[in-house]
Amino acid sequence: MKITFSGTIEIDDDKQSSIKDYGKWLRTTRLLQSLTLTELSKLSGVSCSHIGRIERGERIPGSRVLDKLRKALNA
Description:
The protein is mostly helical.
């Protein structure tokens, strides 16, 4: 991963693929449990916009966020 002074993050293809795969898993798991973004947000304490960005593969969740989402989804 490379961070430039402008704040841009460059991620190699393998890592970008993993991020998108996690986002797909998160969205699929949320929908299988019939949860909206708002409901998951309330259960996890993670904002709707942040969850949406993770699901689209635009954000890399930190360990605390991952743990909150995992607990909220009982995964």
